[in-house]
Amino acid sequence: MNPRSLDGLRDRLRQEGLSARYLKRLTAELMDHFVTVREQYVREGHSTAEAERLAEQRLGDEDTLYEEIVRCKELQPFVRRHPTVSFVLGPVPILIGAIALFGLLGTGLFLAATRWLDIEYTNPTFRLLVLRSFYAFAYTLTPLLALGFCQLAARHRCSALLALLACLTLCVLGGLVKIDLVLCPASGSIKFFQRVGLDLARFGVPLIVFAGHTAARLLIARRARLTLGD
Which of the 8 DSSP states describes residue 43? Predict the structure, then answer.
């Protein structure tokens, strides 16, 4: 391992999902160790070129260091160490949290518009804006989360099956409950109602996202293999 190989090692480890902060510290420590060992051999009477060669042998080659670091589970990201938790259970709190945050934000903006800005809640333009914003969120949240989990699996080189499990979880959570937004004329407030039933659009779109992302992932991998073969 020589200083010129550190960039290649850092890039390979970055693809494994190791944090940039850790990689920066690792390369700095390897560089310091290389310099220390080289100077030790110089003091022992070796030429500079010979001292660098011996220091490289002392540190080991790039492939060996890469394999040793990757095998160390403590250094792997949480997704790699706990894939089931990340892709099967992970979508549940994330989806619930996003819905709760949107609910608070939407209610706050509605109250601010009707009470502080004196916008009539019966105003057709305002009602249309509120309704479209609500349904846009309802029908894009799970597809966006599905895309996020697909990209997470690809980034950490996890099986596409894990991404599928995450998307299926989102399908169940988002597609088996129908929701309706109602602007209540009596109170001037907004209410949303949940009805048990299959919402085909919200149920199916995460799977469509998974299929498209996985197809693109396989195509990219195939092109990479063909390039290496050439």
Answer: H
Q: Which residues lie closer than 8 Å to 106 by C-beta, 6 or more apart?
A: 133, 134, 137, 190
156: left (phi > 0), else alpha (psi -120 to 50), else beta? Answer: alpha
Number of H helices, E strands in the chain: 10, 2
User: pLDDT digits over 117-166, tens only?
Assistant: 877 777 778 878 888 888 888 889 999 999 999 999 888 878 889 999 99
DSSP helix/strand/coil, 184 = strand
pLDDT tens for 60-84 read 777 777 777 766 655 567 787 788 8
Instruction: Compute CA distances 120 → 106, 108, 110, whole Å.
Output: 16, 15, 11
pTM of the model: 0.65
- Rg, C-alpha atoms of the chain: 27
**CA dist., res. 18 & res. 205, Å (int):** 31
Which amino acid, one-letter code, is at 194?
A: Q
